[in-house]
Amino acid sequence: MDKPILDIIEVAKIYGGNEILKSISLQVKEGDTVVLIGPSGTGKSTLLRCINLLTRIDRGRILLGDQEITAPAVNEDKVRQQIGMVFQDFLLFNHLTALDNVMIAPIRVKKMSKAAAREKALYELERVGLKDKAGNYPGQLSGGQKQRVAIARALAMDPRIMLFDEPTSALDPELIGEVLEVMRKLALEGMTMVCVTHEMGFAREVATNIVFMEKGLIVEQGSPDKMFNHPEFPRTREFLWKITELYGKHDQDKAAG
Amino acid sequence: MNEYLPFILGGIGVTLGVSLIALPMGFVLGLLLALVRIYGPRWARTIVGVYSTIMRGIPPIVLLFLLYFLMSGAINLSPFAAGSLALGIISSAYQLEILRGAFLSVSSGQMMAARAVGMTRIQAIRHILLPQALRIAIPPWSNEVANLIKDSSLVYALGVPEILRRAQTVSAATTEFFLAFGIAAMVYFLLVFFSNRMLDWVEQKTRIPAF
Amino acid sequence: MEWLTYLVTYRNEFLQGTILTLKLVGVGLLGGFGLGLIAALLRVYGGKVGRWIAIGYIELFRGTPLLVQLFLIYFGLPDMGITLERMTAAYIALTLNSGAYQAEYLRGAIQAIGSGQMMAARAVGMTRFQAIRHIILPQALRMVIPAWSNEPISLIKASAVAYLIAVPDLMNQAKIIAGKLYDPIGVYFAVAIIYLAIVFVVTWLLGLVERRVAIPGLELETQRTH
To answer: How far apart are the C-alpha atoms of C18 and C20, rounded to whole Å?
Structure first.
């Protein structure tokens, strides 16, 4: 078995006496697309923030490749440069054009030359299908376009792994497809991805591994086939049934048809 | 009066001089203090908060005298220099509050997104938060510029030959008090008016499209 | 720590100065409120002529230093045959100055209430005047309070320039005592403490009033900073 690129070992996170994450262990292999599902408030987003060190964990360890990124002396900024993150509410830099949003981290963080960063940024914008919107400010983009720019911004740092925190939850239904399409393409190209999403069609089609979390614990994980068709636990079955009813009926039909 | 007009108008240079020393000084000091007030350790935040409350709770004319005598006790400064520096210190407290408000109105997600792409805290402040905060600060800041131009008349009390002091000299010489002070008022009015228009223009120019 | 002994030794002078400062502020606030209300109403409802008169007044007095206004009124008006006592001149200057600022606060509140309320009041048969009196103003006056509550503090601080026409206010007492003692730093420090105390007390009182009359969600942005 390959060595995992991301190894989460018994991680716990406590907020004001509340154990948001109790003891999470999860391995992600190179090229995997892991989809985290579960009721809201079960710590999926917290887990992503812990991986990106935006939140400090209280117990356990997280390894990125060979490096223990939760060790005390680790340079957090160096770690984050290797991990791309996409947020639910996009969080594009409001004062910068799409192109500058993608360029700024390579220039300021990687000290890339302006010309090289520009070339890189245009390439990444092309990857998400938005090269023609390079000069637009965030306010001049639709929600779907903003999220694709946010993906390009993360990709421009050549991350070893990409984290998606409910990337389509803030979008109007008709704009969800374009973002999922970009994510699907990335997964096919072999990008390692950890996604929190309610898009079951996407999970079914693209995930290598679906992880069901509840109340700060991983209840069950497995391939889409196992999770959708013969899950071990009644809770998993119940949740997947509900979520498919709520969000993904048409997606599921589409994936099936 | 015609022969005295150039003398009064010559005070514009002095008034602008005082303002152009005090304004950037208050800005730099105010910005540093605002950053400490928001991102500094708890004890430093408290100190800056107290500084701001005290400075904004005392009449500028009282502070002007206090700072003037404190400074001239320590170093040898002309009334012009001491007055300008004192107004800069006073303005720092007001600019601190303007900038603090502007920083706080940039959404907290911007900092998170900047950290997520690997920026340090300082890089995030410098490249992401500051450019947005400064834009937000322009309208209240333009108000502060107007206040500073008006407050620069206080150095009259230190004997600095700015517009008002010169108007007074002329009024005594010509006994045309209303005319002399009326001219001074019009000059201040125009200075404030043009500084407002200029900053409106800057705001238009730096506006983020569709934001 | 000489300033503490100054506060004790010259308590009578400081007390008299404080009373005079508070009188200046009180008159300026009240007079300024009346004038500001008229100017605000003229500016919103006064038609073309009324609007321009109001704008002219507001912009002139907000666009020039209070000290210049004070000199113009006290030293300048006698040229026009109007000679005023120094106290009267100070009262008038503070009233005119504060009125311009208060007009802007009130205008903001009146405009924030919007034309819908006026339309609704006219629709039930009120005259324009009745609508302003019974519908617009009761809302505007409550709405303006948070923004307006800066004005007393601003005026306390602004009033200190009145000493330059020899009004015997707190600042003037400080100047006299400082000259007597040859210790400007200690005396101005003492008087700064007194001003600070006045500002704190007034801020506290305003906070009490604000909490009692505030309507949640009805607030305006503040404008004046000095």
So the answer is: 5
The CA-based dihedral angle spanning residues B19, B20, B21, B25, taken in that order and rounded to the nearest 10 degrees: 100
Which residue's structure tokens are 């223990």? A68
pLDDT at A256: 45
Distance (Å, rounded) from C-alpha A111 to C-alpha B111?
20
Chain C residues lying within 8 Å of B192, measured CB to CB: 63-64
Question: Which candidate from C60, C192, C200 shows the least CB-CB separation from B189?
Answer: C60
- B contacts of A84 (beta carbons < 8 Å): 117
Q: Within an 8 Å CB–CB cutoff, is residue A157 touching chain B?
A: yes
For residues C41 and C52, what is the distance between their CA atoms, to the nearest angstrom? 12
- Per-residue pLDDT of A185-224, as tens digits, reads 999 999 999 999 999 999 999 999 999 999 999 999 999 9
For chain B, the three-class secondary structure string (H helix, E strand, C coil) is: CHHHHHHHHHHHHHHHHHHHHHHHHHHHHHHHHHHHHHHCCHHHHHHHHHHHHHHHHCCHHHHHHHHHHHHHHHCCCCHHHHHHHHHHHHHHHHHHHHHHHHHHHCCHHHHHHHHHCCCCHHHHHHHHHHHHHHHHHHHHHHHHHHHHHHHHHHHHHHCCCCHHHHHHHHHHHHCCHHHHHHHHHHHHHHHHHHHHHHHHHHHHHHCCCCC
What are chain B's partners, defined as 3 or more CB pairs within 8 angstroms?
A, C
**What is the amino acid identity at position A86?**
V
Distance of CA A206 to the CA centre of its chain: 13
The first and second tokens of residue B52, run together, are 């701001």
DSSP class of residue C182 equals: T
Contact B153 C164 (CB under 8 A): no
The Cα–Cα gap between B165 and C111 comes to 40
The string of pLDDT tens digits covering residues B9-58 is 999 999 999 999 999 999 999 999 999 999 999 999 999 999 999 999 99
Residues in chain C, pLDDT under 70? 214-226
Read off the pTM.
0.88
Write out residues in chain B with pLDDT < 50, as ranges. Answer: none
Note whether B171 contacts C: Cβ–Cβ < 8 A: yes
Q: Which residue of B has its CA nearest to C81?
A: B178
Query: What tokens were used for A67?
Result: 């490096």
Q: What separation, in Å, do the N-terminal and C-terminal C-alpha atoms of chain C show?
A: 29
Alpha-carbon distance of A153 to B33, in angstroms, equals 32
**Residue in chain B lying closest to C202 (CA):** B57
Picking from B106, B107, B112, B117 by the largest number of A CB atoms within 10 A of its own CB, the best residue to mutate is B117
- Strand-pair category, A209-214 with A33-37: parallel
- What interhelical angle do C184-213 and B42-57 show, nearest 10? 100
> First CA to last CA across chain A, in angstroms?
34
ipTM of the complex: 0.92
Within 87-106 of B, beta carbons closer than 8 Å to C belong to 94, 97-98
